[in-house]
């Protein structure tokens, strides 16, 4: 908060303080600060080579192993179990990069005092959130490209040939990373420590992968009650959106509703973006309360 002094004035587009005889000093807006923070986050991330290798290789290796073990024909000619699994795991990778990594990363920033130091700068919490989204967007895009390439080479997954499917890929990707990043930030404030955050996140992520049709394909093989529970969370809809992009139109018959339900995918993910933003804003704290 900027305290005005006699003769001080504010200008649209940023905070400014004007004193007689002195030049006006304007602070960058939240978006500019957030993008600058995102650049810093990216440099810090790619500086740790072990973390980069693990982040990108683990989902791809897991997809190769499970796809090779579970691959086989399905009820739809031309679509294999490996392709179903790969399409779902590409979507699941977004949740791993956003929700999982952010929940544990923000908790670690708070535990090590990094957030406390940032609190002493002009950067608001919204700019910190934007910075994390920049990191997630870049790392998720790289991971999606890597996993799609592996799926195409090893499991014969087809890249979309229609502009409408590429558009679907873009908006499912965007809504997925925004909603899951914000939820990860919110969850980081609920955990008492980084160790606790890791345990909670991994448990939630693993359970949701099973009941959202990532590992069990097609999703119609799951009990309806499990799919109904998964329908309350973003992962199920992200994976469904990605299956609509990477699988032929005939594969829609292997969905629980017999439809890709793309308007519903957009609605649910959009709601989670709003809910995530509210929860992140209300629960976020710069320091440990212990």
From TrEMBL:
Sequence segments annotated as region (Disordered): 1-21
TM helices/strands, residue ranges: 52-70, 82-108, 129-157, 169-190, 197-216, 265-284
Major localization class: membrane
InterPro entries on file: ABC2_TM, ABC2_TM_bact-type, ABC_2_transport, Nod_factor_ABC_transporter
Keyword Ion transport set for record: no
Compartments where found: Cell membrane; Membrane
GO molecular function list: ABC-type transporter activity
Membrane topology recorded in Swiss-Prot or TrEMBL: Multi-pass membrane protein
Sorted UniProt keywords: Antibiotic resistance, Cell membrane, Membrane, Transmembrane, Transmembrane helix, Transport
GO biological process: one example: response to antibiotic
Pfam families documented for this protein: ABC2_membrane
Domain ABC transmembrane type-2: 50-287
A cellular component term, taken from the record's GO annotations: ATP-binding cassette (ABC) transporter complex
Entry's family note: Belongs to the ABC-2 integral membrane protein family.
PANTHER family tied to this protein: ABC-TYPE MULTIDRUG TRANSPORT SYSTEM, PERMEASE COMPONENT, NODULATION PROTEIN J
Name this polypeptide is given: Transport permease protein
Protein source organism: Amycolatopsis mongoliensis
């Amino acid at each position: 908060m900027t305290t005005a002094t006699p003769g001080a004035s504010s200008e649209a587009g940023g905070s400014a303080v004007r004193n007689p005889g002195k030049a006006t000093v304007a602070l960058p807006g939240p978006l500019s600060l957030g993008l600058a923070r995102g650049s810093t986050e990216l440099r810090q991330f790619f500086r740790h080579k072990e973390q980069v290798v693990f982040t990108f290789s683990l989902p791809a290796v897991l997809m190769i192993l499970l796809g090779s073990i579970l691959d086989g024909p399905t009820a739809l000619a031309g679509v294999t179990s490996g392709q179903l699994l790969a399409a779902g795991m590409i979507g699941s990778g977004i949740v791993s990069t956003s929700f999982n990594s952010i929940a544990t990363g923000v908790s670690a920033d708070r535990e090590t005092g990094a957030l406390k130091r940032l609190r002493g700068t002009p950067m608001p919490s919204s700019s910190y959130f934007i910075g994390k989204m920049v990191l997630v967007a870049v790392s998720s895009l790289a991971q999606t490209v890597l996993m799609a390439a592996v799926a195409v080479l090893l499991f014969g997954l087809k890249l979309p040939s229609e502009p409408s499917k590429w558009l679907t890929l873009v908006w499912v990707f965007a809504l997925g990373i925004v909603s899951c990043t914000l939820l990860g930030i919110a969850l980081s404030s609920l955990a008492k420590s980084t160790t606790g955050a890791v345990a909670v996140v991994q448990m939630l992520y693993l359970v949701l992968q099973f009941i959202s049709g990532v590992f069990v394909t097609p999703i119609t093989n799951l009990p309806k009650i499990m799919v109904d529970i998964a329908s309350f969370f973003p992962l199920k809809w992200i994976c469904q959106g990605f299956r609509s992009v990477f699988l032929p139109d005939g594969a829609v018959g292997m969905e629980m509703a017999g439809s890709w339900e793309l308007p519903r995918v957009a609605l649910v993910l959009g709601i989670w973006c709003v809910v995530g933003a509210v929860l992140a804003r209300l629960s976020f704290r710069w320091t440990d309360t212990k």
